[in-house]
C-alpha cells in the first residue's frame, strides 16, 4: 500500500504563480513512484517540475530514491524548482 504523497509547503504558491502568468498546471504529486510534482503547459510547450522547498536545508531538498530513479530514466527534461520566481523563470 502506497503512503500519502508529501507535498512541499511552497507547491500551492508555485502553482498560483504559474497560473497567474497564463500557464495551465496539472498537479501530479499524488501519482507517486517518483513522478514529478507538476505538469505545466504554456506557449504550446510542456514542462515537468519537481518542487522542493528552498527554505529547507539542502539535505531536506534532495530527491528521494524513487524521484532519482524516475529522473534518471526519463528521456525528457525535468526541472527542480524551489520557488515561485524560479518556476516562472523556467517558462521563458
How is the topology of this model organized?
Layout (H helix, E strand, L loop, with lengths): L10 H10 L3 E4 L10 E5 L2 E7 L6 H4 L3 H9 L5 E3 L2 H7 L2
Parallel strand pairs: 3-4
Antiparallel strand pairs: 1-2, 2-3
Characterise the protein shown here.
There is one protein chain. This protein is of the alpha+beta class. Strands 1-2-3-4 form a 4-stranded mixed sheet. It has helices at residues 11-20, 58-61, 65-73, 84-90; strands spanning 24-27, 38-42, 45-51, 79-81. It starts with 10 loop residues before the first helix and ends with a helix. α1 packs across α4 (84-90). The protein has a single domain, classed as Trna Endonuclease, Chain: A, domain 1. The mean pLDDT is 93. The longest helix has 10 residues, at 11-20.
What are the key terms here?
92 residues, alpha+beta, Trna Endonuclease, Chain: A, domain 1, four-stranded mixed β-sheet, 4 helices, 4 strands, 33% helix
Number of strands: 4
Q: Could you tell me how far the N terminus lies from the C terminus, measured between alpha carbons in angstroms?
A: 39 Å
| Count of folded domains | 1
Q: Strand portion, in percent?
A: 15-25%
Computed over alpha carbons, the radius of gyration is 13 Å
Structural class: alpha+beta
What CATH architecture label applies? 3-Layer(aba) Sandwich
Largest β sheet strand count, sense and barrel closure: 4 strands, mixed
Q: What fold name goes in the CATH topology slot?
A: Trna Endonuclease, Chain: A, domain 1
- Spell the H/E element sequence: HEEEHHEH
Q: Record the strand order, biggest sheet.
A: 1-2-3-4
Helix content: 25-40%
Shape: globular
Amino acid at each position: 500500500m502506497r503512503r500519502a504523497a508529501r507535498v512541499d509547503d511552497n507547491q500551492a504558491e508555485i502553482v498560483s504563480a504559474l497560473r497567474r502568468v497564463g500557464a495551465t498546471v496539472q498537479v501530479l504529486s499524488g501519482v507517486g513512484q517518483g513522478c514529478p510534482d507538476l505538469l505545466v503547459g504554456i506557449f504550446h510547450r510542456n514542462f515537468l517540475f519537481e518542487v522542493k522547498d528552498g527554505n529547507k536545508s539542502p539535505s531536506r531538498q534532495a530527491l528521494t530514491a524513487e524521484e532519482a530513479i524516475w529522473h534518471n530514466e526519463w528521456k525528457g527534461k525535468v526541472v527542480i524548482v524551489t520557488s515561485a520566481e524560479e518556476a516562472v523563470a523556467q517558462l521563458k
